[in-house]
Amino acid sequence: MKANGDNYFRRGLGLKARVKPLLAEAYGSEIVKAIKAADYRLTVGRFTFRMARSLGFCYGVDRAVEYAYETCAKFGDRRIFLVGEIIHNPHVNQQLRDHGVRFLFPDDEGCFDFSPVQADDVVIIPAFGVKLGDLEELRATGCVLVDTTCGSVLHVWKRVESFARDGFTSIIHGKHFHEETRATSSQVLKYPGGRYLVVRDMEETSLVCRFIRGEVDASAIREVFVDRGRASAGFDPETDLERIGVANQTTMLASESLAIASRLGEAVTDRYGPDGALERFRSFDTICSATQDRQDAVAEMMKDPPDVMIVVGGFNSSNTNHLAALCARSTRTFHIESAIGIDVEAGAITYKRAGTQEVETADGWLPDGPVEIGLTAGASTPDSLIGQTAENILRMDGVDPTTIEVTVGEQTG
Hints:
Elements: E1 8-9, H1 16-27, H2 30-37, E2 41-44, E3 47-51, H3 59-74, E4 80-83, H4 90-98, E5 102-104, E6 122-125, H5 132-141, E7 144-147, H6 151-165, E8 169-173, H7 179-186, E9 196-199, H8 202-212, H9 218-226, H10 237-240, E10 244-248, H11 254-280, E11 281-283, H12 289-301, E12 308-312, H13 318-328, E13 332-336, E14 342-343, E15 348-352, E16 359-363, E17 371-377, H14 383-396
Parallel strand pairs: 1-7, 3-17, 4-5, 4-6, 6-7, 8-9, 8-10, 10-11, 12-13, 12-17
Antiparallel strand pairs: 2-3, 14-15, 15-16
Helix pairs in contact: 1-3, 8-9, 8-11, 12-13
């Protein structure tokens, strides 16, 4: 795959300086800068905002958004399509729509219709990547491709490719319907006989382990995974689970991915012994460092949890949902997509309950008197949305955020 060429761009389009002011205006936040400058803890009136030391846009997302803006700047005279969403953040995706980008969405089976794409068009590949077959189909159109696939995702792809090349089935910890997992699983098809199976959690992993140990028969695996489209076509548990390699969707809960790999390794050892496991089991750390950093930062905050924790990010963002779940273990937590979730006039908040798909509205969600409010955000959330959230909270108390003057030396860490 070429890094850059007339029809394929992977390393930007040389317009970083041109789009930098646009990105700063669209996604920057003065109040976020102020909180960071005050050692991530800023008191305004009765509110003390505590911010996770790692939050918001990661390198991969920042790069993907930047490349999308460069694409709009370079190819403004052409039709520009985006395969799915650039990232899982409705605000960022709307900004691209406002720049004229046309979105191509898959059907319920994750299949795209690329018939509208013509040779003169430009197509942006999102940070999640695309399935191998989709990339081949787009290349065949002759269109210009701008590939923003995250480097951490590419790292996982290399692992599952190596598993398939050496005759190992890839066990992928992820959500089988997620764009990234669909793209990752497709990489094994580069090799004849390449196989994969997707496990969602420890419960599903335990079923696979029971089969490996000989405690359940193949029909149990077929029912849960093969019949539900969570395994490669023609998957045969009897032969395809004899040699396995473990990988993961980069935005999953890191501790869970590691535990799943450990549990599978134990099952293979129980079945084949330590020497046999050396020949039949592989596992590499494919956890995204940015995902890990954001989870670690929240874990550190929860050692002394704030009164209320607000997690900002798309409701369909995997890494954001995991952050909310981590926070909810220690304090009252509200996962909102943006500051719009905070109704300044009514004093209410509309949020997604951690660990569920339920969206609820709560009144009186902030206690009276001095209150600590924790802030964190998923890797697809820009500073602007974090800052607007803090500003809306201040407005609920009648404080005009534009009048705030911060003296960093007066803040305590």
